[in-house]
Amino acid sequence: MKTLIHAIFIAFTLLLVTACSNSNSSTSSTVIHLNDNWKFSEASQNEWLSAKVPGCIHTDLLNHDLIDDPFYRLNEHDLQWIDKNDWEYKTSFIIDKSTFSKNRINITFGGLDTYADVYLNDELILKADNMFRGWTLNCKEHIKEGENTLRIYFHSPIKVGLELYDNYPYVVQSSANDLAKIGKVPGEKWVSPHVRKAPYMFGWDWGPRLVTSGIWEPISIKAWNTARLDNIHTIQNHITEQSAQLTSVFEVEANEANDATLSISIDGNILTSKKVNLKKGTHTYNVDFEIENPELWWSNGLGEAHLYQLKGELQTTAGIETFSHTLGIRSIELVRENDEVGRSFYFKLNGKPVFMKGANYIPNDVFLDRVSPEKYEHIIKSAADCHFNMLRVWGGGIYEKEIFYDLCDKYGILVWQDFMFACNMYPGHPEFLESVKHEAEYNVRRLRNHPSIALWCGNNEILGAWFGWGWKENNEKEQPHGAKAMWQAYKDIFLDVLPKAVEAHDPAKQYWASSPQAGDTIKTNKIDGDDHDWRIWFRDVPFITYHDGAARFVSEYGFQSFPELKTIKKYTIPEDYDINSEVMKSHQRSFIGNGAIKRYMDNYYRNPKDFESFLYVGLLLQAEGIRTGIEGHRINMPTTMGSLYWQLNDVWPAASWSSIDYFGNWKALQYFTRKAFSPIIAVPDTKTDDLLIYCVSDNFDDKQGRLELEIVDFEGNKLWSYQDEVKVKANTSSIIFKKPLKELLKGINTTNAVLSTKLFAEGELVYSTTSYFKEPMELNLPSPKLKVLTKKTDVGYEISISTDMLAKNVYLSFDEAEGWYSNNYFDLLPGETKTIIFETEENIEDYTSKLVVRTLNDTY
Ligand code: BMA
């Protein structure tokens, strides 16, 4: 039925549905949440203490002061006993007469971590074995009117893992990320490939080894008589600016054949309804509809991420059942076409090619129940504020909670969604494949309505590891049958089970088997597919290498830093303040980490005089490196069409590749990404014989621009200047200035000169930056006299800062005060003034004297 959505307005149906993307509410059925009154005990100890659900054993122990903070100093190492134990959780709840009288009573477990035997009134109703899926079962015959008990027995994931390991005929190849040694696993066996549980909890090169158990998602009961509306999947058949052709697929479970009416409302207005004959059992029913002149969902920076609220209703004689989800109308496509370079790899959103700017995202904590809605919002909003339009949910973490995708929908962040497989081979026995099948179907069905989901990807780096890290050769030599079995399991999982789940449940989305991967072949290359560019960091090449040979889509590249001192203070004591101390080494999980940081630092910066200076210079080093990467990728547009650096966030306070630390503080890199990912940038390149200025624009229209260049010395004397009209070409990169450096720099002392670049579009300053002709270590930085004025405001403090001479990488900090600085680590030119807001809820006594201002020349 063709209907203009706002034309029909039925007042009494104007119900505002929640912002939650998939919500299942109803009037004909009863829903009871079972997240209260939980207790836990070490199995068979019978010493019950209150527990938090959703939660995990580590946070429950912590809440009762039974263990010390696992992140503090070396505590992690003493807490490895927890995952060798079995744990029990129990609660009781009341089922009233009316609920009990319903024909069907289902119990749903949103997520059990991991090997869980579930007893309802002491009868075993479920043996769960996969953290990543939910479980729904009919419990009518086990439940009773009045008081019921629910008890969940969690087997140690390590003990079960060891059994699986020992019973499997081959050693399943894992990587050094499985920190079996820290985990004190007998024989240091890699159990993680066998256990369908968040891989990073077994350790990673940025995270601790803390293997949890527990109820990590909510539990509920639903009772009904006639029919239950299980799910609605809204398929976007054809999207243009004029019209969205949609089909909502209702999935209904009916106890008996019945007449029913299905209807769809958008933003509270009924759009269409349809009579159907429900068949007994679970069946799907399609409702087609059209929205004329739809407001499209655009990714961040290109327009509004418009969200409609869709509500589906199932009306039977027993009453009304509803299911709601947010609807972002958009088309998304991964375009892979032969071209003069090789084969394209770019996303088209609503028919337009869009360069993807963003990062790889990992979970926000090892203990998932600690991640508050505010933390999720801070992380995603930070990404949006820095012009990101894509996050890759990396395959070693979790399929994220609903709130993550709701926020991505809201902020216009597309999601490259990995399935949870990373840097391991996997066993391929039928039970494992069956478990993976359920996991994949569960998560594809759960997430497919989110407009943010752009791509399903099978795994992280497994293809590359098998063929490129010696895994294939070593296994073929040492366990030839094992090698064959592992490769067969690879094909079964990533070329069969997972793509079939996508095809069956989210056919509009594309599937990419492994990241990185080139074409349909097995090797990565720069001309086809996506690339993880780890030449910088792992292979010691200079940062500027990012400017040559960028691949079609760079889905990983990165450089580490330690967090700022404020964060380090939270997990150390002053005697740990040395990167070679036991504590600092334990919070550095990359086996080449400290050496790589030091070597790169020696190439670009003077030797920092103390620990604090080392931290600050390290943050700048990382920021400069990744800025070079972002710029290198963007100037290579449209050959390169994506730049996702490794990694946005942290699971604990430590050295890592993150741009936001565990406590949510922006590292220098986060500020640098905000600039480098701006919609229009000008990139001065002084690394060849010419000064080149590239202009990169993400806008869909050409703009009239103006380029202003100036070279000044560090005291502020003007040495050269230039200005001209330029064209800011739409959605591409172009060179807007070129001049031989020799000519330009004649008579200029480049150790005392800075280039200021300003780009205007349609009369408005859209980008300004400073660049140098020498590395920071070669610059003769003066000691500037900074004028700092601080005042209290409604949101915190306002700092206005100016300088007489060049102040390089100005870093402001109110020591340990928690908050967010609107800008930091910036260059201040002679005579320039900048105003920074420090947003904080803290009242800082003596704030003028508390403010510490640091510049690069202070570090040596
Ligand atoms: C990539 C990621 C992660 C890892 C990172 C840094 O390989 O996929 O596995 O943490 O590099 O080494």
UniProtKB/TrEMBL annotation:
Pathway(s) the chain acts in: Glycan metabolism; N-glycan degradation
Gene3D superfamilies noted in UniProt: Galactose-binding domain-like, Glycosidases, Immunoglobulins
GO molecular function: hydrolase activity
UniProt domain Beta-mannosidase-like galactose-binding: residue ranges: 38-216
Domain Beta-mannosidase Ig-fold stretches: 781-859
Reaction equations catalysed: Hydrolysis of terminal, non-reducing beta-D-mannose residues in beta-D-mannosides
Alphabetically ordered keywords of this record: Disulfide bond, Glycoprotein, Glycosidase, Hydrolase, Secreted, Signal
Residues covered by the Mannosidase Ig/CBM-like domain: 690-775
InterPro entries: Beta-gal/glucu_dom_sf (IPR036156), Beta-mannosidase-like_N2 (IPR054593), Beta-mannosidase_GH2 (IPR050887), Beta-mannosidase_Ig (IPR041625), Galactose-bd-like_sf (IPR008979), GH (IPR017853), Glyco_hydro_2_cat (IPR006103), Ig-like_fold (IPR013783)
Protein's cellular compartments: Secreted
Family label: Belongs to the glycosyl hydrolase 2 family. Beta-mannosidase B subfamily.
Domain (Glycoside hydrolase family 2 catalytic) ranges: 349-462
Entry protein name: Beta-mannosidase
Classification lineage: Bacteria, Pseudomonadati, Bacteroidota, Bacteroidia, Marinilabiliales
EC class (word): hydrolase
EC number(s) recorded for this UniProt protein: 3.2.1.25
Pfam families: Glyco_hydro_2 (PF00703), Glyco_hydro_2_C (PF02836), Glyco_hydro_2_N2 (PF22666), Ig_mannosidase (PF17753), Mannosidase_ig (PF17786)
Range of residues in the leader sequence: 1-19
Residue stretches making up the Glycoside hydrolase family 2 immunoglobulin-like beta-sandwich domain: 228-330
Subunit structure: Homodimer.
Keyword Acyltransferase: no
The organism's place on the tree of life at top rank: Bacteria
Function text: Exoglycosidase that cleaves the single beta-linked mannose residue from the non-reducing end of all N-linked glycoprotein oligosaccharides.
